Amino acid sequence: MADQTLASLAAGLKARKYSSVELTKAFLGRIEHAQPALNALVTVTAESALAAAAAADVRIAAGTAGPLTGVPIIHKDIFCTSGVRTTCASKMLSNFISPYDATLVGKYKDAGTVMLGKANMDEFAMGSSNETSFFGAVKNPWDLAKVPGGSSGGSAAAVAARLAPLATATDTGGSIRQPAALCGVTGLKPTYGRVSRYGMIAFASSLDQAGVITVSAEDAALTLQAMAGFDPRDSTSVDVPVPDYAAELQQPMRGLRIGILTEFFGEGLDPAVEQAVRDSLAVWQKLGATIQEVSLPNLPLSVPTYYVVAPAECSSNLARFDGVRFGHRCEDPKDLLDLYKRSRAEGFGSEVKRRIMTGTYVLSAGYYDAYYLKAQRVRALINQDFRRAFGEVDLLVGPTTPTVAFGLGDKTSDPITMYLNDIYTIGANLAGLPAMSIPCGFAAGLPVGVQLIGPHFAEGRMLAAAHAYQRETDWHLRAPSGWAADFEPSTTGGAA
Ligand code: GLN
Question: What is the DSSP secondary-structure string of 255-277?
Answer without folding.
Answer: T-EEEEEGGGGSTT--HHHHHHH
